[in-house]
Amino acid sequence: MTDDDIIIAHADALRKAIAENDVNVDREVRRLSRRGFIVAGAAAVAAYGGWKFLRLASREGDVPWPLRRGLETNEKLSETYFRTARLSRTFPASAITNARINGGVGLQPNYDPANWRLRVEGIAGQPPATLTLSDVKSFPRRDMTTELRCIEGWSIVVHWTGTRLADLMAKFSPPSGTRYVAMESPGRGYYVGLDMLSCLHPQTLLAYELNGAPLTWQHGAPLRLAMPVKYGYKQIKRIETIRYTDVRPADFWGDRGYDWYAGH
Amino acid sequence: MKTLEKKHPLAIRWFHWINFPILAVMVWSGLLIYWANPVYRIGVGKHTLLKMTVAEKTYEKANLAFRLAEGLTLHFFFMWFFAINGILYVLYTIFSGEWRDLVPDRRSWKEAILVALHDLHLRKEAPPQRKYNAAQRISYTAIVVMGLGSLLTGLAIYKPVQFGWLTLLFGGYQMARFFHFWITVGYVVFFVVHIAQVIKTGWNNFCAMVMGYEVQRYD
Questions:
Q1: Would you tell me how many other CB atoms lie within 10 Å of the CB of residue A257?
Q2: The complex's ipTM?
Q3: Structural domains of chain B sorted by starting position, each given as residue range(s) with its CATH number in brackets
Q4: Which of B37, B74, B164 sits opposite A86 (nearest CB)?
Q5: Chain B neighbours among A 31-50 (CB < 8 Å)?
Q6: Residue B124 scores a pLDDT above 90
């Protein structure tokens, strides 16, 4: 063999080795990509199945039950973290915005506030109490300028005047350990369920004035809830009944696909 | 000669592909929520260049109208998976040392410009490409910072009293909502560019995100 022959033979051997290597690499790529795409496909099918399950699960309060459990889990965590000492931010009078009118459920325009009485039910060892507006006003008058946050995403700054719910509840007290407070407008046109801690928050007011003037009927005259630790849909207008209960009270929007707790 | 080279660890691939559908659900449910109060715009002062909304009719045609409750419920469910997956991803990159390939260094800012010029065909020479080039490092780190931003602004909107200090930090409730929205627009922009880059880079690169290996050729 000449030197050339040797070089050619080496080159051939090298080419052959490279070709063999490339075939092996291609085979390995096919194996790995097959495995990868099978796992990926299976994961995608599982994810799609999980999604379909979530969408089609039986509904509780117009929410698929797994998502309702999700809201309730969030509620438990929120309640554990909740402290009545943490206050909603307050604003100077200059920050007050136009009081937007929103949500007329349970408000009849021809309602006569003169006939209005507030009924408190479930008082510890007492029959239900009936209060006039001046009875409500006999408690210390509280003022606050806070943000009202709507579940839709907008917010306004409002000046509220009213009685602290906690003050009223100190006089007409629930049995110790009571978990919930239910509130209703006349004829149960609107109703909310509230957790006890949020009701005891110092910024939870039974409000009779908005921006320095008595409530108009659109804003829930004569008495409504002003509660910056909840979204607006919990801040019931024209409260007629307050009831202490250990049975989780129904909630107007909670029955219609929204979070029951809705706490800030 | 071809060789098979390990590129993306199994954990990173799972984090990536789990995040994709979860983030998609978060953006979509966010849109269902946004419909109820679609107030944002691009503009200066009174001049609006682009309203970040469409006609009510269009929402209805796209089946995005009157689904606020559904959007909220999904958002408050999948937020946990988004947060947990994101936190585990960050922890993984820290403890595995992968962060060294992902976090921009001193050179990255300058090099990222070269990447952009090259991608826009304004510059011929390819910029230095390690596992990730400078533009990738910046965007893959930015997306993690944005994720953290989404979680924090989200918490500030979700619990503006109990986490009032956080809400105040973002400049108040409406400002937190503003940032939360624009970060989401950022995800959409990232997605579009990311998909374009993946298509441009080719199948081999895409497969690496599925199977972990990439075929390299040496001539």
A1: 19
A2: 0.93
A3: 2-217 (1.20.950.20)
A4: B164
A5: 32-33, 35-37, 40, 43, 47
A6: no
